[in-house]
Amino acid sequence: MSISDRCCGITPFLVMEINEKAEAMERAGQSVIRMCVGEPDFDTPECAKKAACKALDDNLTHYTHSLGIRELREAICEDYQKRYGVTVAPDNMVVTQGTSPAMLVLFSTILEQGDRVITSDPCYACYDNFITFAGAEPVKVPVYEDDGFQYRVSAIRKALAENDRIKAILINSPANPTGTLLSEERLKAIAEIAEEHGLWVVSDEIYHGLVYEGKEHSILEYTDRAFVFNGFSKLYAMTGWRLGYLIAPPNFMRTLQNLCQNFFISANTMAQWGGLAALKEAGPDVERMKATYNKRRIHMLDRLKNMGLPVRHEPTGAFYVLVNMRPYAEKFGGSSLALAYDILEKAHIAVTPGIDFGQGAEGYIRFSYATSMANIEEGMNRLEKYLKDFA
Question: Is the pLDDT of residue 243 over 80?
Fold first, then answer.
């Protein structure tokens, strides 16, 4: 029996490998501080849980419309109108089992064998695998800490000049792993490039709402040549509910719907009713979570600075801090993965190696502050001791 080349080309998601190693250590009785996986440590808001339970009690346990329940799609449209002043029609989106299936069906829809997509380096670990699985190729555009990990418009234009068959530019703001919030000026410039070259902008907006300084903007404010991923996992602490959505131009919707009908039928019914309640009622819960994240962010940045690990451009969104630890990675041939495993084994802290996000983050380590202040304090104490003992 042979396995397809397409599947063999999918690389492991290293953060999950680290997390599973940490779980094994915990089962063996060891204390591990986990600051690796980007998952809120808060409970899902009560309003969402009650709405899902009510759906069960009301026997709303059957398939929904393949695009998602109308009430939820209408509420998402209202949310985008309120937050960004953009008009989205309920029939121009599909509700999915998290944003990952949305990525799968979108890239399968817009990409042909040999097409290319511009992505930043570093970027979210799974983007490249979705693109290559669709038969296309990512074109990596470096982003740098000195520039706040922002796309440089000149670098995008250079990539366009050097590569043919580029179909889209992929953006993520606030970004994983950097916490970077793209400026309005750069978003406008990217939209203009897309219009000029007949490209699509694919915007991952899953961390919208988790912004502590400045204001996030949707790409839909600047161009109609865009697809948007979003969902409920991060902002509403609903990762296990697997609920996301994809906003798309009208002429793509029938194909996207066909794929979703065939591959997934519909998103989880009870989760959709829970998501509707979250959108309409969980505002106070979100504000409390956000305020707590911000306190943790400030504390982590202060502790890292005091350890001699200053972050040049402090992250203002999501719940990540990407830290340059190349001097320590040199002991392991520059490998952030080997460094991450050493930190796990010696300091019992689970962190994410920068290489998970591309060569541009090799030698960096990502810390997540989506964990309690007590865990952050203990984790920073352990890291400080690890660095002092480092040899």
Answer: yes
Name residue 226's beta-bridge partners: 201
Please check whether residue 240 is in contact with residue 50, taking contact to mean a CB–CB distance below 8 angstroms: no
CB 356 within 8 A of CB 15: yes
Place of tokens 């660095």: 387
In this prediction, residue 10 carries a pLDDT of 85
**What's the pLDDT tens digit per position in 22-78?**
999 999 999 999 999 899 999 999 999 999 999 999 999 999 999 999 999 999 999
- Please report, to the nearest 10 degrees, the dihedral formed by the alpha carbons of residues 94, 96, 98, 102 taken in order: -60
- How many Cα atoms sit within 13 Å of 280 on the Cβ side? 14
What is the arithmetic mean of pLDDT over 340-359? 96
**Cα separation, 72 vs 64, whole angstroms:** 11
pLDDT digits (tens, 9 = 90+) for 106-121: 999 999 999 999 999 9
Amino acid at 148: G
181-192: pLDDT as tens digits: 999 999 999 999
CA distances (Å), 352 to each of 13, 38, 165, 296, 387, in order? Answer: 10, 10, 33, 18, 17
Beta bridge pairs of residue 200 = 168
Give whole-number Cα distances, 111 to 115, 271, 349, in Å. Answer: 6, 30, 40
What pLDDT does residue 1 have?
A: 63
Coil, helix or strand for 1? coil
Structure tokens at 269: 């019914």
Q: Give the C-alpha separation, 84 to 174, whole Å.
A: 15
Q: How many CA atoms lie within 13 A of 185 on its CB side?
A: 3
* Amino acid symbol at 146: D
Query: What's the first-to-final CA gap in the chain, in angstroms?
Result: 47
